[in-house]
Design brief:
The complex is a heterotrimer of chains A (296), B (329) and C (324). Chain B is built from twelve helices and twelve strands. By secondary structure, chain B is α/β, with parallel strands linked by helices. Chain B has a domain at 5-99 and 181-231: P-loop containing nucleotide triphosphate hydrolases (Rossmann fold), CATH 3.40.50.300. In chain B, a hairpin with a 2-residue loop joins strand 4 (75-80) and strand 5 (83-84). In chain B, helix 5 packs across helix 7. Chains in contact: A-B, B-C.
Amino acid sequence: MNRLGVKRSMLARIVPGMASLTKRGLAGWLVILGAAIVASIIIMTLVSPWISPYDPSTKGINVGKPLTPPNSQFPFGTNDLGQDMLSRVISGGGIMLQVALLSVVICLLVGVPLGLFSSYIGGVFDRTICLVMDSVYAFPGLILAIAIAAMLGRGVTNMALSIAAVYVPSYFRVIRSQVLSIKEMPYIEAAQSIGAKSRTILFNYILPNVVPSIVVVATVNFADAILTAAGLTFIGLGVEVDIPDWGWDLTNGRRLLPSGVWWVITFPGIFIILLALGFTLMGEGLSELLNPKLGE
Amino acid sequence: MSKTEIVKVENLKKYFPVEKSFLEKLLTRTRSFVRAVDGVTFSVRKGEFFTLAGESGCGKTTTGKLVLKLIPPTSGKVFFKDQEITKLRPEELRLLRRKMQIIFQDPYASFNPRMRIGDAVGHPLEIHGLASGAEKRKRVLAMLERVGLTPPEQFIELYPHQLSGGQRQRAAMARSLILEPEFIVADEPVSMIDVSLRTTIIDLMLDLKRELQLTYLFITHDLAVAKYISDRIAVMYLGKIVEMGDKEEIFSNPMHPYTQALLSAIPVPNPQRKREPIKLGGEVPSAIKIPTGCCFHPRCPFKKEICTEEEPELIPTAADHFVACNLIK
Amino acid sequence: MQKQLLTVENLTVEYWARRGKVRAVDNVSFSLGKTETLGVVGESGSGKSTLGLSLIRLVPPPGRIVNGHVWLEGIDLLKLREDEMRKVRGRKISFIFQDPMTSLNPVKKIGEHFVELIRTHEPKISDEEALQRAEKLLEDVGIQPERINDYPHQLSGGMRQRIMIALAIVLNPCIVIADEPTTALDVIVQAKILDLLKDVQNKYAMTLILITHDLSIAMERCDKILVMYAGHMVEHAYIKDIYRNPQHPYTQGLLRSIPNIELAEQKLEAIPGSPPDLLNLPKGCRFWPRCSSAMEICRKTEPKLIETEPGHFVRCFLYGDAKK
């Protein structure tokens, strides 16, 4: 049973489990609410080519008079290039979602094995890795992401890499503390007593019990990645201008704000917050649900 | 090793180094050790119920794990059917796991919470490549039935938290027995189970012993249970065996002062019992600073000068009765 | 007939679990005289600990006492206001908690525990006087008085339990409730602690309620016994009567299933089944699924408590007329 298989089966259990979430009290509702927000935004982004009233890219310049406040024709107003803000908001989540997803995937591929092996093996290896991780962790996240993004350059992949670099230590820490406590449990000893090899123990006994914490960290990672991506774009380390992007609208909107143009920055901003909130709620709810069960 | 012995332990020792604080590491050179098991020798005969009894901290659980080589000994030897297992390579040791198994004290914590009971019980078969798929399922169902978890088709799908304590312990037995071992170490298997359910587990162990020709090394602090279930018993104190022998002998004629005190302290459900529990002074000392000579002397009501100097050996006083006491020669 | 010191009538404690309402203690009634020792015996889920906590009104939420009376020296403790009850706790009725390892404050010295306790009830007392009283009590429980300056982690489990006992008696209560005082201890220390409780009880003329799952301890050390099963009191009698004539099938089953080292040959008999889920209690008598004597009526109606001989109460249809 390999790693991927374990995650798939975990996912397969979560999806049908959604129905039973309603019975799990406040935490269950938090997860449902968060998932609903996230799902709506994802769907909205995916169908944006069909539902945006106007073309949000540079082809849609001057569909309306530039800098019109929200009205019946343009519910979210227009920006300085005459683009419809509503269309830009509907289509603008794509970059962020991609960056967030990619960063989580990188973190999982790097952070999870590192955390698992390091804490299971222990010794000098473990202590060295811990030292490295703690040093990275000590940096303020956004600053480090900026530094790395500045080195790597623009683009979705580079943004994802810089966010991942900042977040891997969190995965590492969480997994490590889980593994250390699980290692002491009698069922690990039981596995040794039936003759299981270390590899079997790691993947069949330790990993499945660590997955709930991974899920929680991943959701928080998503939320944080959204905000960091917005931040990176804000500073100009994001993506090219042509693609509609909330982060870009934030930058632009900030420039326009002193002149009293509030709608360019506000609506994308609200959606960024909403997306991050959705993930955070999911994370909170999942953390409540998945961890107490172990103690039940 | 005689033909009837299945496990033999010779002068087994396990010392755990004491963790020192950073400052202590800097300033001192000495190392101190917790002498969990301090020179234990005994043998278990095929088909018997051999009990290691004693209070907490006496080293009985550690001895059990040493016998299975779940932890490596500091010194000493363990033999399983003439083969010295202390010297085995990991591959050979894994083969040995099929013959020697363990049942843990905490029925909940000894199961992976994310594994269904069926998978957990069948996992040993997978690990040793003995069965998979349909054949594995068949064997798991048969074993669940054997330990009384019926209907087995229902239990095979459940998670550990869905079973009661008694049921989990039965499942633990199923898991240990599915490899058809010859020797089982049972570490306090009933102490965390409700009183009214203990007998069912104990009876199950006895039935299985008869049916499958098992040999048990039973570890417990509950001497009343030990008396009921054992054939032979060894009483441990501070990492050493102080008295050992046939169960009836020991209970009717305990010779070591510690055994006497221990037996007199056991509560009996009889309000008319005239009993004077032997009062032992003090408490069990730390296993880091074991007293010189006989480790029991600070608390012994019969202590003499010699007891502070000489460590007593286990010597036979009757056919199957050994005592380690300087005053008994 | 000795005037009863403590009378409990129809005590009922409920709590709301996620899946429904649970009656941890269901209509328990008994009375206890001065200097008597009562053993409350039951397994996990029987409600014995909750019963003990409810007598001193320390049932943790979401549990609530929903019915009943606890008469102590003529006053119903359940009717007192919280501030009045606080004056009673420790002073008239005290509690020894289950786990000595975690019941003491690790950052306070032993002496400070005593001073704090005494000061709560006697605010005018001076530090020296309180400490003097504490030292005397330490001697009573067999601990050197110098240990009063130690921290809890410097003492062993047995010693900590003695401290708990000393704290429970320092204000001379008339009733002490001990909840599984020896479960975490080895058998030799256990015997010493139980002996100590007896000595203290005799010296200070106290009434003791001993909550335990170990029937042997109860039979050996108590005057009266109360057997609990799934929240119900199923049998209540003097120890000699229970020993001579255990009536409830559960009590009989328990006696047959515990190993007795004084018996040469013993065949233990198990009680089939397992304790019920309190959220899913069987209809009728709570014990019938495990009872070898279960009759038709047991599956339908809950038996009431009846007195089969003076002082011997049992809740079972096998006794008295079925429709009492």
